Amino acid sequence: MIEKLKESLDKIENKDFQIMFLTPDLKGTPRASVAEIYYHVKELIKLGYNASILHENNEYTKVGAWLGEEYDNLPHSSIQEIGGTFKVGPQDFLIIPELFGNVIQQTQKLPCKRVIFVQSYDYILDMLPPGTNWTSLGVNTFITTSETIKQEINKLFPATTGHIISPQIPSYFSNKNSLKKPIIAIMCRDDRTTSKIVKTFYLKYPLYSFITFRDIKQIPREELSEVLNDYFLSVWVDETSSFGTFPVESMKCGTPVIGKVPMIQPEWITEKNGIWLFDELQIPEAIAIFCKNFFEDIEDTDLLNEIKDIENKYTEEEQSKQIKDVYTKIFNERKEELKTNINRLSEPNNLEQPIVL
Amino acid sequence: MEKSNISVIIPIHTVIDLDQYLPKALESVTKNTVQPDEILIVRCACPEVTDFLSEYDFGDLIKKVRVVETQKTKEFAHMVNSAVQEVNTDYFSILEFDDEYSSIWFKNAVKYIKAYPDVDVFLSHVIDVNEKNEFIGTTNEVTWSLGFVQGMTPEESFSNLGFLDLEALKTFPNFQISGAVIKKATFEDIGGIKNNLKLSFVYEFLLRMTYNGYKVMTIPKSGYKHMNMRPYSLFWRYRNDDRYKLSQDEGKFWMQTAMKEYFFNFDREIKYEGN
Asked: At CA A15, angle to CA A14 and CA A20, rounded to 5?
């Protein structure tokens, strides 16, 4: 046992271990949370680690069509395919997105280090069996995207250690100073919300019935940056969002956002960098006022100036640095855990104590 | 001040209410932060109009104003076509003397000319008012409606929003070229506005433009205030003046004629022979 742990320790020292990111199959639907997983894998590979995407079934729709072809070329493996040959050791890492709460219990007996990747606070309790918590299921480390979520998680699972890696917005989401078109990009978690906003707007403001709304959920990311540069307004309603990739992408393209403040207020929201509402029913009116000002060329200079502040935040470079720092820390923590266990096993008096892997 | 490369053409065929409206129309030009390079007032040869303009105080605008006289008729199309020949800029815009530009219009027109050099006609988002200056609606904005774009994939439809399309124009004829900024060379190539068409001359002009592949787009800015049915205006006369009044059948005839005439780049003789 001691030899095996020492071997694992050496493997971590020599970067000879696997970091597998369990990833949901979106069947081709673009989603920022999955994009983030791919960004982590890509960056870790760049740093010389053996990182890969792990998906459930053989039939998995890759993300190249909406995220970029290069992401199809990252290593992928399927649990269905590797089945019984799925072997991990104490040196390996399994990164589990928060929405796979059930997997935390299923993987309890695996000897690898498991880390929960929380991008949406709203999902973390969904699949967690009642009466259990992450610690009781053997998980003591998580990665999340902001200090606020980290604090909220620590309130639920006080014995866990959290690390923050902010999402990245690719550099193609930048303001090209295009002449804006009177088209509204809209993104609501619930399609019924989209429908309600659009219909209410047309009914209450028939003068603006020529304004076109476009649901951007299906648009590939690079194309989305062009769309957001062209369109004059973004509308965003996502109560359970923990970050809000879409509004940040819009602002980086110089497009103002009318949005409902989510339950957990994202750290980047300021009083003046958007039209932030607490009541969804006020959104159609806010859109109408925005339209009037647009057609009359009345610019909200405070808003446009505040939007610019986000230009240099959430960059690829910033995230690359965080990925390097955070994962290095997690790997070092793992090394310390293994060393502790080796020491315990080396002392005959401690043989009776459980080994926590 | 920035040169706009745009001339304004103001056709004047009557003195009725001219003293009331012309100052406002001219003031709307001067209120723009970016201004047209010249103003061509094209007038009929009627003595009362001649007298009015010779006595009119243009103030500082006098440096920009040129008066062009047309001999033949008082028809709007003929007056505009004559004035365009005299234009010294690459673009021109028609200002009816009872209408007004918004103060943001030329600034935006210049921006859009720069961004879309291949566009031949920039329509304005027109605000329509009645003779009491009360808001009654808007015109030209429909090009931005997804429902207006026909026979395209969703992606094509989104990228074509704002542009006037021949197929859509055939089913929706209500557009306004007053206030629009028009490329002079294209206007001349295509034969200008047809004098022989009553009622539907604007419609036929736009059909001909789009049929010949010229690009017409609406600038999404409120650029022009248009007074509808001012007493004694051309369209008012079509409806109310016994000498010019069009019956419902004749109205239909001129709209149908527009649909037949846009294939021709020259003005053919047309007669209405109905009741």
From this structure: 155
